[in-house]
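Lecture 7 notes: from sequence to structure.

We start with a single chain of 507 residues. Read the sequence below before looking at the structure.
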Amino acid sequence: MVYTTAQRLCHVYSEWATGDDAWNMQSALPKGAALLGTILSFDKTNVSTMMGDRVTHPLLISLANICMSTQLKSSLNAFVLIALLSVPKFIYKKKHMRGVLEDHLIHECLDIVLCPLKVAAHKGIILSDPVRHSCYCFTPLTSYIVDTPEAMMLAAKFRLNGINTPFWLDWPLSDPSHFLIPEFLHLIHRKFYNHDAKWLICAVSDTEINFQFSVLQVITGFHHFHGGISKLKQVTGRAQHDIQHSIVVVSTDAVPSTMMTAIRALMDFQYLVQSPIIDDIQLTHISTALEEFHVNKDAITDGRFCHGQRGGVIENWYIPKLELMQSIVPSIRNTGVPLQWTADTTKHMHIMEIKDPAHSSNNNNYNPQICRHLDHTNKCCCFDLTMSLLNNMTDLKWQGSDDVGDVNDNIDLDADDDHNDGDVDFDTDVNHDIPDLLTMSKYPRHPHPTTNYFKIAKVLQHREVGTVPVPLHLFIIECTVFHLAYDPSIRNISFDDAAIKFGLPNL
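Now the structure, written as tokens:
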């Protein structure tokens, strides 16, 4: 566990390993065993676009031991598709019975697909780490990223949906009250647009709030709502973020003060829980913000600002996602910050793992073609990775060499005019032999190649005085390299001339 002081007075939560669950699970394992937390994601997604209405349930898997910053980057492929579950259409006449049959089928499929993980969580499995050391590993289920309806189906609470043996029942160290964690995209952002924003639109009026949003100054990087927000359709998570930035400001003077206090407290709560690092003091602030909302929320119902989908006034607070906010603070203590469990990454993985391969198919019999496409892509990635490692062996050998002079003799610091890739623009009057100082390394699935600026800066440090090309683009300070990608209008100027030109008498 992580604390702010040696006295362990304030617990700090960030990654999954900083939560209580990881430590409790590790204590339950045999001595010397390794804990591999399993992350699953399950959500219905459309395969086809405007043809056939094909939908499927992709099951993604990841590892909780992966660093949060790496896991949240979809380009690093921290999530992998392990199963593609079809959505059946039952012919039974009663709708509720069709739902029960569908839930039964999903649990049976999950039980079959996840059986190896459950066996490993029960008996353990010998795996090798990156340095080929054998480890005795256990794989409990630590997180399941799903929306609220899917979470209710998977939990099978009190067996109300007819599921007698849910898939997690024989999975050791796995409890639905812990692995069904709060998820930002649905619990925070969609809840905000479906409820908080609707309350304010009703209180301010459609016309006024649309006008206020339309006259906001355009800011680069943020969506500008020229026609307002009251009639938006297919609102994305990005649009919901941008609405949250301004809605309190544009609504402040048009709603009752008590209602605005409740809305502001709810917004404070939503922003605080999105922090990548949360300690016990911040948890107190989060709980206080939620309590403040509940104290003042009656102003929303008293003003008759809470409406249903059909326009009727709602005078109760039976909102599941609002009630689930009570579980966020205990979840942070158990599994770390909720930011690491966001569905934004898994939604993007649906595009990479499902929709892009489906678009490459002939729009018939999707599942086999998607699997073949992913298999082909995986083999190409492994081949590219192997070739990348082989091609970079020279760089590894160079880093182990102590004779920089020998390397400098074989390096050409000239830069051709054809280089538009951000390399250093060296003067052409310096003559050396050819090779590969400016060669950029390409890695599999990385959109941009990599230039070894440390290597360039180290070589320039050993150049003779007067032979280093100007203007200087590279600076190295201990373990940090600064590369300035610019072409200055003033390449060489004295201190006196600079003081006169820029009006700096004390330079």
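Residues 401-439 have pLDDT under 50 and may be disordered. Keep this in mind for problem set 3.
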